[in-house]
Design a protein that fits this description.
By secondary structure, this protein is mainly α. It has a single domain, classed as Alpha Horseshoe (Serine Threonine Protein Phosphatase 5, Tetratricopeptide repeat), CATH 1.25.40. Helix content is 61%, strand content 0%.
C-alpha cells in the first residue's frame, strides 16, 4: 500500500455529539432555574431544546407529567441524533455537555416509567442508556 492511500481503521461504532445550544438558550435556561412556567415558555420558544424538556421532566411533581415531558425530549433527541449522523448504534457520551439534554430526557423517561409501573419501558431505557454510554450514571446519577 502506498503512502498516497492511507488505511483508516475504525474501532467499534462511531460516537455522535449533538450540536451545542446557543448562548441565548443557555442564558434563558440559567435565568429560568427551576421555574416551571419559565421553562415551559422556553420549550414553547424552542420546541427542539432538549435541555428544557429534560429539566421539565426532572422537576415535574408527578410521574405522568414527568413521563410526558421526558417522552418529548427523548423523541426530539432521537431526531437530532439522526440529523447528526447517528444510525441507531454508537456512543452518545454523557461527557459531552451537548448530549446531556437527550441523555437526561432518556433517564427521566426511565425513572417515570418505573414510577408508573411500566417496567419493560424502564428496563429498555436503562439498557439504551448503557448502550449509548456505559458510564452514563457517573454523570447523570440514578
Amino acid at each position: 500500500m502506498s503512502q498516497d492511500h492511507p488505511v483508516t481503521i475504525t474501532r467499534g461504532d462511531p460516537e455522535t455529539v449533538l450540536s451545542p445550544i446557543s448562548v441565548e438558550q443557555r442564558h434563558r435556561l440559567s435565568q429560568a432555574g427551576n421555574d416551571e412556567e419559565a421553562l415551559k415558555a422556553i420549550a414553547a420558544d424552542w420546541p427542539t431544546l432538549l435541555e428544557a424538556w429534560a429539566q421539565l421532566a426532572e422537576l415535574a411533581s408527578d410521574p405522568v407529567t414527568s413521563y410526558a415531558f421526558a417522552r418529548v425530549g427523548y423523541h426530539r433527541g432521537l431526531d437530532q441524533l439522526r440529523q447528526s449522523g447517528w444510525r441507531g448504534s454508537g456512543a452518545v457520551k454523557a461527557t459531552h455537555e451537548s448530549n446531556l439534554g437527550f441523555l437526561r430526557s432518556l433517564n427521566a423517561l426511565r425513572k417515570a416509567a418505573e414510577a408508573i409501573g411500566e417496567e419493560v419501558e424502564a428496563k429498555r431505557c436503562e439498557l439504551f442508556l448503557y448502550q449509548l454510554d456505559a458510564k452514563w450514571s457517573d454523570v447523570l446519577g440514578n
